[in-house]
């Protein structure tokens, strides 16, 4: 019987999470922006490998030092220096006995990848490592891609099974939900989530992972097809009868200045 995979956050900088995957003494990390907290979490154990979602420094800044100390492989977008195993959309590989699927999710950056990890046997929820694309209650800023690209990427993620656990790379949930409550004031499920997240943060606990189901019910960037959200976008500059991409683009711009 294979032991359970454990996934825990390693806090870094002011609000990043480096995800730490461990099974039977094998350790991997996702998006190590800083080496020091990873080395501390490993407590002398060897690091088997690194996964990267995109090229921003707060996701890759610790890679060189970790590779120097652990001589481990680095899986990620081909555009990033130091990647030993370049990944692209549709790739699949095995990681600690679990199947990993690579999804291209351009928008926040053009090279952004999401990694979907599925345990064998189908009794566990899939795990999604989505970097700065889908956040709990929000989504990443558009630094490189177009609203159409980002909306396409978010739509792809929203089609994953609702029980999929969403491991984003920042603790932005409270601020995201404050905006969400403005974008869809009549959403009672969202109001409950605001309260839950407020209590978690008051106790200093992480608000991630969330699930795709929770995001579908409360994240305005996944709810551009909902008339109430489209109406709020219209109040903030979207044309009447906008399509979903225009609603998305308006929400994203509104949030940038929120
Ligand atoms: Zn980023």
TrEMBL record:
Protein residues bound to Zn(2+) 1: 54, 56, 108, 132
Residue positions binding Zn(2+) 2: 58-59, 132, 170
Pathway: Secondary metabolite metabolism; methylglyoxal degradation; (R)-lactate from methylglyoxal: step 2/2
Signal peptide: none
All copies of domain Metallo-beta-lactamase, residue ranges: 15-170
Substrates-to-products reaction catalysed: an S-(2-hydroxyacyl)glutathione + H2O = a 2-hydroxy carboxylate + glutathione + H(+)
EC number, UniProt record: 3.1.2.6
A GO BP entry: methylglyoxal catabolic process to D-lactate via S-lactoyl-glutathione
GO molecular function annotation: hydroxyacylglutathione hydrolase activity; metal ion binding
Cofactor binding note: Binds 2 Zn(2+) ions per subunit.
Gene3D superfamilies assigned to the protein according to its UniProt record, in alphabetical order: Ribonuclease Z/Hydroxyacylglutathione hydrolase-like (3.60.15.10)
Pfam families: HAGH_C, Lactamase_B
Alphabetized UniProt keyword annotations: Hydrolase, Metal-binding, Zinc
Cofactor(s) listed in the protein's UniProt record: Zn(2+)
Domain of life of the organism encoding this protein: Bacteria
Job of this protein: Thiolesterase that catalyzes the hydrolysis of S-D-lactoyl-glutathione to form glutathione and D-lactic acid.
Subunit structure: Monomer.
Protein family per UniProt: Belongs to the metallo-beta-lactamase superfamily. Glyoxalase II family.
Protein name: Hydroxyacylglutathione hydrolase
């Amino acid at each position: 019987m294979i032991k359970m995979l454990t996934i825990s956050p390693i806090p870094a900088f002011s609000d990043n999470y480096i995800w730490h995957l461990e099974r039977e003494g094998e350790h991997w990390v996702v998006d190590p922006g800083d080496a020091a907290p990873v080395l501390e979490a490993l407590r002398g154990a060897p690091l088997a490998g690194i996964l990267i979602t995109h090229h921003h420094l707060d996701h890759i800044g610790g890679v060189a030092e970790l590779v120097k100390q652990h001589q481990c492989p680095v899986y990620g977008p081909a555009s990033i220096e130091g990647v030993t195993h370049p990944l692209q959309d549709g790739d699949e590989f095995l990681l600690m006995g679990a199947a990993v699927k690579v999804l291209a999710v351009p928008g926040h950056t053009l090279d952004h990848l999401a990694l979907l990890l599925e345990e064998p046997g189908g009794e566990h929820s899939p795990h999604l490592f989505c970097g700065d694309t889908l956040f709990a209650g929000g989504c990443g800023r558009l630094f490189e891609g177009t609203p159409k690209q980002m909306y396409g990427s978010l739509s792809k993620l929203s089609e994953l099974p609702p029980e999929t656990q969403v491991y984003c790379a920042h603790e932005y949930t409270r601020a995201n939900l404050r905006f969400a409550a403005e974008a869809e004031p009549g959403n009672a499920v969202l109001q409950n989530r605001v309260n839950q997240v407020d209590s978690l943060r008051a106790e200093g606990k992480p608000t991630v992972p969330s699930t795709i189901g929770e995001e579908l019910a409360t994240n305005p960037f996944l709810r551009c097809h909902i008339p109430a959200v489209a109406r709020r976008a219209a109040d903030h500059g979207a044309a009447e009868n906008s399509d979903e991409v225009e609603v998305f683009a308006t929400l994203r711009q509104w949030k940038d200045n929120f």
